[in-house]
């Protein structure tokens, strides 16, 4: 179906996406007072069904983001997983799918003028789905370190997935693409590595794997958490969560990004310098393969990450 004819979940009901009407006064639109998630479902390796990846964890993180902005989300994580399954089934999206739930401040009490605040504003929730395959970046991407710093937790909670915060990420992407790069790597206010525009960063060097820790102003990615587990289980590698300095990017043997959208992407060039020998390295390749197996239900150790959509 065309995007506007697809089913969406809006304010507790299944409706056609094209029938949703949002007021121009929607508070989240003016002040960025919303939160969201990006979730994927994958065609199962054994065929016949799709599997949501870490769906419950995504909806738990959505709830945490809601708490930060005092958004009242009236559906629990388990209910939202059920809604998502039904949405994918209604849309007959058997195969690789992207799910985008968004929860946002809607309106003050009637008659109250616009106000920059969190309390006393009603909450709206919408979920849409779209088919989405691989980004196709297996050969690696080129990144530039951004002159825009990642928002610090002292200004806007970096650990929440807050809509307004993405103006910061968009500035970084704009700068990077204008300079001919594929994506930006952002530093935090301390000048150490935070993350890419919509993905976490892993650095492989001298036999160890590191990633910026939770105090580096990162969004604690669920793909990041999965990769830490997969490397422990499948390669007996312990990922060190620590401060990562910019120059480590230039000296690394391998750098890769992790995120629901991009999945696992090798970074083969940073600031115009090749990463390692300039081609995807063995740890990156191992992680890419392990992730695909886990996401498609072919890894018996991590079946609890998969929720079958339930195609008949
Ligand atoms: N950082 C940012 C800023 C992101 O937008 C994302 C994508 N949600 C990530 C990291 C990766 O998080 P996840 O693996 O949970 O998708």
From TrEMBL:
UniProt keyword list: Amino-acid biosynthesis, Aminotransferase, Branched-chain amino acid biosynthesis, Pyridoxal phosphate, Transferase
Cofactor(s) required, per the database record: pyridoxal 5'-phosphate
GO MF entry, a single one: branched-chain-amino-acid transaminase activity
Enzyme class: transferase
Reaction(s) this enzyme catalyzes, per UniProt: L-leucine + 2-oxoglutarate = 4-methyl-2-oxopentanoate + L-glutamate; L-valine + 2-oxoglutarate = 3-methyl-2-oxobutanoate + L-glutamate; L-isoleucine + 2-oxoglutarate = (S)-3-methyl-2-oxopentanoate + L-glutamate
Top-level taxon of the source organism: Bacteria
Pfam family, one: Aminotran_4
Gene3D superfamilies noted in UniProt: 3.30.470.10, D-amino Acid Aminotransferase, subunit A, domain 2
Enzyme Commission identifier(s): 2.6.1.42
Pathway the protein contributes to: Amino-acid biosynthesis; L-leucine biosynthesis; L-leucine from 3-methyl-2-oxobutanoate: step 4/4; Amino-acid biosynthesis; L-valine biosynthesis; L-valine from pyruvate: step 4/4; Amino-acid biosynthesis; L-isoleucine biosynthesis; L-isoleucine from 2-oxobutanoate: step 4/4
GO biological process: amino acid biosynthetic process; branched-chain amino acid biosynthetic process
InterPro entries: Aminotrans_IV (IPR001544), Aminotrans_IV_CS (IPR018300), Aminotransferase-like (IPR036038), B_amino_transI (IPR005785), BCAT-like_C (IPR043132), BCAT-like_N (IPR043131), Class-IV_PLP-Dep_Aminotrnsfr (IPR050571)
Coiled-coil regions, chain positions: none
Keyword Transferase: yes
Biological function: Acts on leucine, isoleucine and valine.
Family: Belongs to the class-IV pyridoxal-phosphate-dependent aminotransferase family.
UniProt-recorded name of the protein: Branched-chain-amino-acid aminotransferase
């Amino acid at each position: 179906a065309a995007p506007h004819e697809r089913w969406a979940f809006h304010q507790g009901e299944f409706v056609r996406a094209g029938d949703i009407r949002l007021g121009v006064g929607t508070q989240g639109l003016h002040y960025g007072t919303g939160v969201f998630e990006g979730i994927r479902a994958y065609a199962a390796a054994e065929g016949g069904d799709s599997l949501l990846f870490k769906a419950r964890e995504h909806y738990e993180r959505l709830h945490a983001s809601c708490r930060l902005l005092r958004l009242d989300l009236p559906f629990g994580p388990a209910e939202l997983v059920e809604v998502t399954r039904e949405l994918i089934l209604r849309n007959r999206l058997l195969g690789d799918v992207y799910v985008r739930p968004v929860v946002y401040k809607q309106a003050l009490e009637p008659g109250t003028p616009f106000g920059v605040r969190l309390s006393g504003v009603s909450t709206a929730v919408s979920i849409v789905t779209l088919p989405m395959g691989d980004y196709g970046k297996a050969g690696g991407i080129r990144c530039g370190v951004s002159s825009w710093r990642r928002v610090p937790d002292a200004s806007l909670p970096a650990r929440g997935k807050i809509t307004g915060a993405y103006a910061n990420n968009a500035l970084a992407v704009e700068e990077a693409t204008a300079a001919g790069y594929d994506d930006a790597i952002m530093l935090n206010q301390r000048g150490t590595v935070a993350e890419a525009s919509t993905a976490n960063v892993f650095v492989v060097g001298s036999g160890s794997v590191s990633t910026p820790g939770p105090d580096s102003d990162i969004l604690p990615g669920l793909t990041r958490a999965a990769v830490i587990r997969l490397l422990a289980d499948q390669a007996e590698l312990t990922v060190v969560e620590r401060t990562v300095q910019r120059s480590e990017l230039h000296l690394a043997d391998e750098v890769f990004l992790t995120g629901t959208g991009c999945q696992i992407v090798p970074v083969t060039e940073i600031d115009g310098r090749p990463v390692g020998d300039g081609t995807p390295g063995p740890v990156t390749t191992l992680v890419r393969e392990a992730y695909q197996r886990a996401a498609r239900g072919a890894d018996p150790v991590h079946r609890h990450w998969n929720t079958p959509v339930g195609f008949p």
